[in-house]
Design goal:
alpha+beta; 2 domains; five-stranded antiparallel sheet; four-stranded antiparallel sheet; 17% helix; globular
Length: 335
């Protein structure tokens, strides 16, 4: 059987196999191989984000958790939309194929040290990260975290530069409620950028099923999220780079039929990714991303990281509503 594959910008991406979640990493793992025209290949390990419409992210394992990067964890590991669509259409063809991450780059001495000090890492279906393992960091550098934190990928533009200096205002670090803060960013954004209405383009639609439990820890919850992906171009009024904004228009239907946590959303807007070009890398990610000071966040936020939004499950709050009227959605709605 030929494994599903797609070529994007002269890079071939091939689905290899799939591992369901285990006790070591509470995420399913998807393995891919990317191959350049010169034959160079990379092993890629992806997982779905339960807080962000099930979008795929580049993954590696970091002592008990998936590593998400140093600067903008929502965008740094985000997989390119062309590849997202391809994966979702073809993943059923490899879900029965299990793989084992054997960490072949480790020599016997390092392997034995891992086995003594961090046995859970060797059991993970994701490759090892080096960020918190000093002896491993000095042994070799794995390509996934190196790419994730590559400073050349991070683009800084106004008005986000000024706001991003305060790390407590970035996504995942909210202090208090960010509505007024995001409204200020939106106003400044609209002063410095103009929506090119002719550039709005529909990409694809999809369905994500969010499954969790309520606060009691036992009652199941199911949210069916139907979403359409679009991209538009925002033109700088002050000579800065033009921006590509990927966004979604989505509906949420509560399939759990329970009053607690019930959530019904009709045709809401939400920003997903902000970049200055649409190029893909051999790691399946975008070539760059714009550091957005919280303008790009997640549809759901962890309760332990936020004090605002509607509690929908034991772990998450819905915060998507605070993005629904930001620029440029306030204009797109009227077109």
């Amino acid at each position: 059987m030929e494994l599903p594959n797609i070529t994007i910008d002269d890079i071939n991406f091939r689905l290899i196999g799939y591992n369901p979640q285990n006790e070591i990493v509470d995420r399913d793992a998807l393995k891919m191989i990317s191959t350049l025209k010169d034959g160079t290949s990379y092993e890629l390990y992806l997982y779905q984000s339960e807080t962000s419409l099930g979008f795929w992210r580049l993954g590696c394992f970091d002592r008990g958790q998936l590593y998400k990067g140093l600067n903008d964890y929502v965008q740094q590991t985000f997989i390119h939309f062309t590849l997202q669509e391809f994966i979702n259409k073809n993943i059923s063809r490899v879900k029965h194929i299990r793989f084992i991450n054997t960490h072949p780059e480790l020599n016997s001495e390092i392997y034995e040290r891992f086995n003594r000090e961090y046995p859970e890492i060797l059991q993970s279906s994701f490759p090892i990260c080096y960020s918190k393992l000093p002896f491993y960091k000095h042994t070799l550098t794995y390509h996934i975290p190196s790419h994730t934190n590559n400073p050349a990928r991070m683009i800084q533009v106004e008005p986000f530069i000024e706001f991003d200096r305060d790390v407590t205002k970035r996504c995942g670090n909210w202090k208090g409620s960010p509505e007024a803060y995001l409204k200020t960013i939106s106003d400044r954004f609209s002063e410095q950028y103009e929506l090119n209405t002719e550039s709005i383009r529909f990409l694809y639609n999809d369905l994500y099923e969010y499954n969790s439990v309520y606060g009691d820890g036992t009652t199941p919850i199911k949210l069916n999220i139907i979403f359409n992906i679009f991209v538009c171009i925002l033109t700088s009024r002050e000579g800065g780079p033009n921006l590509y904004l990927y966004y979604t228009i989505y509906n949420i239907v509560d399939g759990s039929k329970a009053e607690e946590g019930s959530l019904m959303v009709d045709r809401h807007y939400f920003p997903i990714f902000l970049t200055t070009n649409t190029n893909i890398t051999p790691y399946g990610t975008f070539e760059n991303y714009v550091l957005s000071a919280g303008y790009i966040c997640k549809l759901f936020e962890y309760i332990k990281q936020s004090t605002f939004g509607k509690v929908i499950s034991k772990e998450h709050r819905y915060i998507g509503y605070i993005y629904n009227d930001l620029f440029p959605f306030n204009i797109i709605k009227s077109i």
